[in-house]
Amino acid sequence: MSTENRAKAVGKNIEGKLQEVWGNLTGSKKDQAAGKAKQAESAARHAVEDVKETAKGIADKAKKAIDKL
Fold first, then answer.
1. In this structure, are residues 50 and 2 in contact, taking their beta carbons and an 8 Å threshold?
2. 28, 22 in Cβ contact below 8 A?
């Protein structure tokens, strides 16, 4: 797991939420949409990290199984 990548994703999510709220307050559809897009990007980054963690877990289990042979 890359803590740095997770932190960047959390930052992007917060940035997106703030921009969406700003868009809601000002009535700016552009800011609302951009904020939601940043939140979606954050979710995608988290999903990528989840896949990386799963792949690493599978690789580690496979290596342990091979080492037992």
1. no
2. yes
Which residues, given as ranges, of the chain have pLDDT below 50? none
Q: How many angstroms from the chain centroid is the CA of residue 9?
A: 4
Distance between CA atoms of residues 3 and 65, nearest Å: 28
What integer pLDDT is reported at residue 17 of this predicted model? 98
Structure tokens at 43: 């979710």
How far is residue 57's CA from residue 17's CA, in Å, rounded to a whole number? Answer: 32
At 1 the three-state DSSP class reads coil
Q: Torsion angle, CA of 32/38/41/42, rounded to 10 degrees? A: -120
Phi, psi of 63 (to 5 degrees): -65, -40
Q: What is the model's pTM?
A: 0.81
Q: What is the reported pLDDT for 9?
A: 95
